[in-house]
Amino acid sequence: xxxxxxxxxxxxxxxxxxxxxxxxxxxxxxxxxxxxxxxxxxxxxxxxxxxxxxxxxxxxxxxxxxxxxxxxxxxxxxxxxxxxxxxxxxxxxxxxxxxxxxxxxxxxxxxxxxxxxxxxxxxxxxxxxxxxxxxxxxxxxxxxxxxxxxxxxxxxxxxxxxxxxxxxxxxxxxxxxxxxxxxxxxxxxxxxxxxxxxxxxxxxxxxxxxxxxxxxxxxxxxxxxxxxxxxxxxxxxxxxxxxxxxxxxxxxxxxxxxxxxxxxxxxxxxxxxxxxxxxxxxxxxxxxxxxxxxxxxxxxxxxxxxxxxxxxxxxxxxxxxxxxxxxxxxxxxxxxxxxxxxxxxxxxxxxxxxxxxxxxxxxxxxxxxxxx
Length: 372
Fold this sequence. Notes:
two-stranded antiparallel sheet; alpha/beta; 14 strands; single chain; TIM Barrel
């Protein structure tokens, strides 16, 4: 394909000039296998630097506190050791002329007592997602969490603010707030997980209040145009979330209110499963939200080169995020440009630890050499 394809056109996002519209989606990889849950020079630095030709990299979800963790070996952004380790990663990406945001993460009830010295994880309400958590001893059934107190909520808002401040210190170009995929914010948004009767439950305005409190706190330490927000409106029967008649109106409200912020982008996911026959679902997320959202719209969910170009050409998104394709094709942008076939990913090594299935996928195109 020619260099004129939509995915390879430049784009101005906030204060950043993106050389293309190919975004590396956040991918949990469970490679921070050390006591401090920090990224490593041996793995993370090489992994991200090899993919620096992306218009933008969004890192794996990084927990904002010890309480926010819910998967083994995930790199956090709440300690000084983590900040120092992430600095080496951002420096490497910038040396390779890349741009990198960090995804700020709190899993809420999608955690397990094994991560919290036997204490319960926290959530909007004490409702078990009836899912599984990836613990050091393997997958275990989730439990009913502890309902967050108002003080817990205030602490969490501060945790996100501190994490964003740490991200600035670590050299990131911006942050993405992970308010998606059944994690903490999504648990507040959804009737299936939020039965609160106080100011954080009941009405749509109340259920979405935490997200906007976090946004208002985070923008005190990093400019709004360096903040992204991720949402998954039609998530259904995954991660403990089920759709109902209030789901899409809730996300419509969120997206309309986000127009009041000068964000870097809104990152939306197309449905993870077929929801065409599911009552109350919106099967075409980009088409639905493009007329509602005024800023930069990023879309992900099963896109390949052809579908990515098409959604851009149709005007339903400005940027396209690729996940699995970026795992096995570190030179994804160059492959799009040079029409080089894609390598298949190995799902068995997604979370296996070590270099296999992480840094051993090969560059197969002509590109500027990446010094590691």
